[in-house]
Amino acid sequence: xxxxxxxxxxxxxxxxxxxYFLGMCSFLAVSKKVSTAFGLGxxxxxxxxxxxxxxxxxxxxxxxxxxxxxxxxxxxxxxLSFLRFIMFIAIIAAMVQLVEMTIEKFSPSLYGSLGIFLPxxxxxxxILGSSLFMAQRDYTIGEATVFGFGSGIGFFLAIIALAAxxxxxxxxxxxxxxxxxxxxxxxxxxxxxxxxxxMGISI
Amino acid sequence: MSTETIEAPVAKESESLLSKRRxxxxxxxxxxxxxxxxxxxxxxxxxxVTTQMKPTMVMxxxxxxxxxxxxxxISLMRNAIPGRVRIIVQLAVVATLVTxxxxxxxxxxxxxxxQLSVFIGLIITxxxxxxxxxxxxxxxxxxxxxxxxxxxxxxxxxIILAVAFFRELWGSGKVFGYDLMGAIxxxxxxxxxxxxxxxxxxxxxxxxxxxxxxxxxxxxx
Lengths: 203, 221
Hints:
heterodimer, A: mainly alpha, 10 helices, B: 221 residues, mainly alpha, globular
């Protein structure tokens, strides 16, 4: 039940985009068409669902204070948490590469639709951000997995909704200075208000 | 006195430290080519940290530091980096610098470190840093790259400081924690939750973009 709650919280209430502004760069850049937004969203769900638990393992068995005690009592007092950033980003870059190669091998059609987005994702702040949040909040492995997938689905919903609105926006008359980025900012703000209505939901 | 003029030996003149071309590296990103409002890079952190001026200032300084030094380091190594692994080299350099900033803040400004939480770490994936490394530092001399980093950093800084100014002023009536609204006569300024919430950030940035673009005449199609 707690896991379900955490899932709902990470999808709706603490949505990556609307409450932490993570992944905004690709959120704004790749939301012009629903089909491409769908591809990117799917790739984000995929990569987040894998990297957050991976980074949890790394954090638990290598980086945290005393995490290396499984190597022997000499290592029990080592605290490598200052290496967190560099290790997380290395894991993410490596995992993205791996996922890309796996998909290319086993499902060329999926690779065709996700392929171009995967390299972009390595530097998407939503991915690194989720891992850092996971480390900061001391999740368990189950929570970390749910949190990873939940954040991904939240991003997926947000980017598809924005892309759908922007496709319709083509037919409206927007002032010159607001075209493109400006109006997208306002729309995102209004969507944020809508998402605020999920606040307080729990099962 | 001889009126004869002796022709100065024509030395290959080195470019002055602040020639016109170099000034452009610093001034262009401030307005016409602003990283946030024109190139649409680095929006995540631009919005997340801007509820108050003080953490925003720290964030701006951290980003300028990381930009300048990562540009310098990558530019010094540019001929030694094989093209295929450049992304991972860049990430390693940036992550090291960010770790440095993170540890310094943790030691000397713990309150602000707590407030910024994960967003210092997210400088690593700030697209401005990676964007400048890819687009500039890999192909230019170290000194030019430093200026370019400074320019982009300042362009980013003034936008986030502007957003933070309005959000803090309208959200809680303060500037840098000083009760400005109270000082100019609005004694009972009610805190405006909308400005402090993420929604306020989107809307303030939307207005800043609108004003800036109607001034520069830049239209996106």
